[in-house]
C-alpha cells in the first residue's frame, strides 16, 4: 500500500478489531449492537429495506475482517466512520447506475476513502469464490480429507481411521491425488 | 537425489508445518535452491495452502458472523419484553401519563398567573424606569380619522389614510457630515427613520449601528437634499461631571423644539447604573436622545429615560459610553469618516446664544 496510514484507533476500537480478527462472537455482536442501527438508518433512508441493510452490514464486517488480517492495516478514523464509509460505498454500488440521489445520515457525514480496502476485499472474494467452486467440484470424500489434513491438522493415521482406509499409505496416496485434483481445478479456474 | 512429486509434496507439507528437524530442513532447503522446479513447486504449494486456509477461515468467520447477526436481530425484541421487572414495566406504562399530567399542571399554573396579570404587576412594581419615546400624534390621529370619515361620507368612496409616524424622539449631530446619535429604544423596530430640523426640513436617515446595552443608536442622514453642516459648536466631555453642575437639554417632546434646564443630581443612573447620570430636568416622552450640555457647551450625556413616580429623576447616558459606542462602529459600515468635533464654540456665550447655535444640530427623530 503506497499510502501510509496514520494510526487513529481508539482503545476500544482496537480491542474490537482484535476480536474481529480472531472471529470472536462477542466482538461481532458488539459490532451489530453499536453500528447496525446507523447502517439500517442509512440504507432505509436511501431506498433500501431492512434485509438489504443486513446484507450490506454483513459484507462490511467481512471487508473489515479481510483488511484487519492484513499486517499493515491501521484505522485512519474511528471504527464507526470506517464502517459507515464502507457500507455507504457498498450501498452506492448496489444502487448502481440508477440515477438515485444519496442522502447521508447527518453526523456521520465525514466519509473517508475506503476504495483500496474494498478493492482488496473484492480480489480476495473472487479468489475465495473460486476456491469454493473448486472444492465443490472436488466432492467428497476428497474435500473432507483435504480439510481434515490441512485445516484441522489431523494426522494421516487419524484420517486413515476416520475414512476407513486399510493402511495409512493408501490414505496418503488418496490425499495426494485429491490435492492434485483440487490444485488443477483451482488453477484452471483462475486462468 | 531425485524425488517423485508425491514424495516432494509430503516433504513440503512437513517443511511448512515445521515438522522437520534441523538436518532435514537444511537439506530440503538446499535441494530447493539447487532445483528450480522444486522451488517453484514449493512456492505454489505454499500459496495454494494459504489460499485454502483463508477460505476455511472465511467460512468459519461467516458462520460466526451469521450466528451473531441472528442473535442480535432476534435478541433485541426479547430483551425488552422478558427482562424488565414488573415495576419498571409499570413505570414505563404510566410514564407518559404522569409526564403529561405534570406538564399540564405547569402550563395551567403559569398561564393562570399570566392571564391574571401577575407578571405585569411584578414588572410594574420592579421597574419604575420609563423610556421617553413619544407616542406621536395621538390626538391628531383621532382628528385625522374623524376627518377621513367625514370626507368619505362626502365623497361616497372609501380612502385609505396614510399612516402617520408612530413614535418620536430626539437626536443630535455627532459628525457634521450627517451622523446623528439617538436612543436605541427610539428606533428599535423602525421601518424607516426621518429627521426633522428646527426649520421643518425633513431628511431620510438609516440606522447604521445599534448598541442596545447602552441604549444607543447611530443614524446616518441619507438624503440628497441634506447639505453638510458646519462643524457642530459643541464638544464631548468624557471626564465625569460634578454633582450640582448646571445642565440643560434641548429636545422634541412635541413637534416644536423645547429647552429644559436643571442640575446634575447623581453620578449614577437608574438602579445604580454607572454608565448614566441622574439629572434633575423635567423631561417628557420625546426628549429621549436629546443632548445634555453643561454651562460651557460640552455634551455630558444623552437623555434616555426617567423614573416614574419620582419627580425630577431623569437619566442621561454618559458621554463616555457614547464615545465608546462610536469607537465600536465598524469602519466598513461608514460611508464617510465619522469625525467627532473637538472645537468648542460655545464657551463664554450667553445661554440663549448657545441654544440658538445648538438647535440647528438637534433633530426630531420620527419613526415609522
Percent of residues in β-strands of chain B: 15-25%
**Helical stretch tally of chain B:** 9
Helix content of chain A: over 70%
**Overall structural domain count of chain A:** 2
CATH class category label of the largest domain in chain A:
Mainly Alpha
How far the N terminus sits from the C terminus of chain B, by CA atoms, comes to 112 Å
CATH architecture assignment of the largest domain in chain A: Orthogonal Bundle
Uncertain spans of chain A: 1-9
What is the CATH topology of the largest domain in chain B?
Thrombin, subunit H
CATH fold-level assignment of the largest domain in chain A: Rna Polymerase Sigma Factor, Chain: A
The helix-strand sequence of chain A is HHHHHHHH
Shape of chain A: elongated
The tally of beta strands of chain B, per DSSP, is 15
Number of domains of chain B: 3
Structure description:
The complex is a heterodimer of chains A (191) and B (368). Chain A is built from 8 helices and no strands. Chain A has 191 residues and is mostly helical. In chain B, the strands form 2 sheets. A 6-stranded antiparallel barrel of chain B has the order 9-10-11-14-13-12. Classes of the chains: A mainly alpha (191), B alpha+beta (368). The A-B interface holds A 23-25, 28-29, 31-33, 36, 54, 57-58, 61-62, 65, 124, 127-128, 131-132, 135, 146-147, 150-151, 153, 172-173, 176, 179, 183, 186 and B 6, 9-10, 17, 44, 48-49, 51-58, 60-62, 64-69, 71-73.
